[in-house]
Specification:
minor pseudopilin epsh fold; three-stranded antiparallel β-sheet; 3 strands; 9% strand; binds fe (ii) ion
């Protein structure tokens, strides 16, 4: 983004709904404008770069098993796409708020909370769409390793499904993850985008926000879970697990 257009964005953002966050941080209009000018006058550091682009769907949404094309497109465009836009806007606002010496720390943390929330939403949605588009058939090494971790594959599936159904009617994510610290494959319950298991790489991600299923299945969360399983792209899960096995969180003493 050129400097003039970046400055225009920052100024317009303060009047937008997203801009309300920053507007509440500053002591007066002059201070707000000064912070915008300060942020716009120097190169954008990577931590504040508002450059995230929506990741295209890795499958044809018209060819899903049991999902309508409409719900997949709506989910991708409105929920995921909305989070991408907001994440970029929040990063712009963080840069301006940081440049303003009058920004109260507690108010700055309101933006950091939104930053964490949108980062979680963007990443989990990308992982979610990437692990869909398959035939739902798990076999080979990935099935064996999950089965070994849970006693058998069916026990893993039972727990994963139960967590999902338990989140029905509310919000959250179910994550099969490889915990680097523990060296274990585990299922995790996440109440919202802010939750994430520590030191864990997600292998399989299921969106349990109502927007993921209400349009097709109403309140029947269990039916959605069935259809999700029919569309899992297990090749992606297997690749994630193989890569996760090569990582180590820290060189901790035994
Ligand atoms: Fe979602």
């Amino acid at each position: 983004m050129t400097e003039p257009s970046r400055r225009e964005f920052l100024m317009s953002a303060s009047a937008s709904s997203a801009g309300l966050l920053l507007a509440g941080l500053t002591t007066d209009a002059a201070s707000l404008e000064a912070s915008h000018e300060a942020a716009a006058s120097r190169p954008v550091a990577a931590a504040f770069a508002a450059t995230h682009q929506p990741k295209p769907l890795p499958f044809d949404p018209a060819k899903m098993h049991g999902f309508s094309e409409k719900i997949i497109r709506s989910h991708w465009e409105n929920n995921y796409g909305g989070s991408v836009k907001t994440l970029n806007a929040v990063k712009q606002q963080l840069a301006a708020a940081l440049a303003n010496k009058d920004t109260p720390p507690f108010a700055y943390n309101d933006l950091k909370r939104e930053h964490l929330l949108r980062t979680g939403s963007v990443i989990f949605h990308e992982l979610y769409f990437d692990n869909l588009g398959g035939d739902g058939k798990a076999d080979g090494e990935v099935r064996k390793q999950i089965g070994d971790a849970f006693g058998d594959f069916e026990s893993w599936e039972t727990e994963f499904r139960r967590i999902g159904v338990g989140l029905g009617g509310g919000s959250g994510w179910v994550v099969l993850g490889y915990n680097l610290h523990l060296g274990q494959i585990e299922n995790y319950w996440l109440w919202d985008h802010l939750h994430a298991p520590a030191a864990t790489l997600p292998l399989l991600v299921m969106d349990m926000y109502e927007h993921a299923y209400q349009m097709d299945f109403g309140a029947a969360a269990a039916k959605y879970v069935d259809v999700f399983f029919e569309n899992i792209q297990w090749n992606v899960v297997a690749a994630r697990l193989a890569q996760a096995r090569r990582f180590k969180a820290f060189d901790l003493p035994a």
